[in-house]
Amino acid sequence: MYRTDKDAGAYFLPDEDNGHRLILHRIKARQKRDKFRKGALAMKLIVYNYRPDELGYLKKFSKKYGVELALCDAVPDEKTVGAAKGCSCMSMLTTPMTAERMKKYYEAGVRFISTRSIGYDHIDLKAARELGMHIGNGSYPPDSVADYTVMLMLMAARKVKAIALRSAAQDFSLNGLQGVDLHNLTVGVIGTGRIGRTVMKRLSAFGCRILACDLYQNDEAKKYAEYVPQDRLFAESDLITLHMPATKENYHLINEKTIAEMKDGVILVNTARGSLIDTKAFLNGVESGKIGGAAFDVVENEAGLYYCNQEGKILQNRDLAVMKSYPNVIVTPHTAFYTDQAVSDMVEHSIESCVLFSQGKENPWQVV
Ligand SMILES: NC(=O)c1ccc[n+]([C@@H]2O[C@H](COP(=O)([O-])OP(=O)(O)OC[C@H]3O[C@@H](n4cnc5c(N)ncnc54)[C@H](O)[C@@H]3O)[C@@H](O)[C@H]2O)c1
To answer: Catalytic one among 334, 348, 349, 352?
Structure first.
């Protein structure tokens, strides 16, 4: 039933149910006792959805914090909950953690769920509170997402998708490919939190005019941007970039009405969350020419598609298929965060967060 992979030191258990390989991988922490060791010994941590690129960091930080890990490359769900038995803490990515699913993990003995992501809108926090399950998120510097956002802005402003498509077909003509200079644009930044502010800082070097709006104004942001009401930002921006969380209040903030308030030919960039934009209204805007270009790292209903190889399959997201077909709409599969520094930090903070929870210490990542 089990076979051993000597290189990875892992045990492979075929999972007939969903085709995922369930990997139970025990990393023995050999490092001498450190400040975390006492509490960590009492805690078993299962890591779900781990990717091969995380393995090196998982080994490194399990040693650093003296933690024994069980690793599973499948998503945490009703089929894989058995792997969590005996583990008081678990680390996961962005699989929806519904009330029913969470209950199963609670029954298996899990008391703390750490998501290796900044966003935690995939976890039912209300259900967690009712159940007595504790939740934590991760953190990494905003630079990876901010850099990527600026890259998407430039790609959209310079029509790189159309240029690449055309030159791939050896059509080297210029017709229709003229872009715009970033420094001539007014850029509207909605959400001036960690990522939004870092984007503004980078944009300030391009010399563009920056408008901003947020529920709360921030002094650092004021160095780079003028805070204006949202309707003014929509009316005056040539390019609008979104950097706020997916809350109930923010659902479909970009919709038919708000698109109508924007400048003709506006460029939209979204590296925050797909649900901030009403996709149908967006597609209508592109088809009518109201929206001149877009670059999205996140789309509605991306869960279950992104991070999985869908090659040769019928894409189960018609809107995404349409967006992919437009020469002025760039879509990337939620990869803005994906740098060596960000992955290292996410793994380390998830392990450290579980250790702090199990020791009953103050935990900067704990949200419930
Ligand atoms: N694409 C990726 O790989 C990736 C990676 C990390 C984070 N994200 C997403 O980026 C977004 C921003 O992350 P962050 O770390 O900067 O968050 P943050 O909490 O530091 O900042 C969010 C800001 O949005 C503001 N805000 C909330 N609702 C608003 C509204 N309706 N109008 C204006 N402002 C509003 C908040 O007041 C806050 O200042 C989040 O949605 C996060 O999930 C995406």
So the answer is: 334
Say if residue 59 is in the same domain as residue 115: yes
CATH code: domain of residue 251: 3.40.50.720
Instruction: Show the domain range for 215.
Output: 143-331
Ligand 1, residues 117, 150, 241, 244: which to mutate, most atoms within 8 A of Cβ?
244
**179 belongs to a structural domain:** yes
Stretches where the chain sits below pLDDT 50 are: 1-22, 29-41
Question: What is the C-alpha to C-alpha distance for residues 204 and 214, in angstroms, rounded to an integer?
Answer: 18
Q: What is the pLDDT of residues 339-361, one digit of tens each?
A: 999 999 999 999 999 999 999 99
What residues flank ligand 1, with Cβ below 6 Å? 118-119, 142, 145, 190-196, 213-216, 243-246, 250, 253, 271-273, 297-298, 334, 336-337
Q: Classify residue 368: in a domain, yes or no.
A: no
Residue-by-residue DSSP string for 211-276: EEE-SS--HHHHTT-EE--HHHHHHH-SEEEE-----TTTTTSB-HHHHHHSPTTEEEEE-S-GGG
- Nearest C-alpha to atom 18 of ligand 1 is from which residue? 193
**Domain count along the chain:** 2
**pLDDT for 73-112, tens place per residue?**
899 999 999 999 999 999 999 899 999 999 999 999 999 9
Is 130 a residue of the active site?
no
pTM here is 0.85
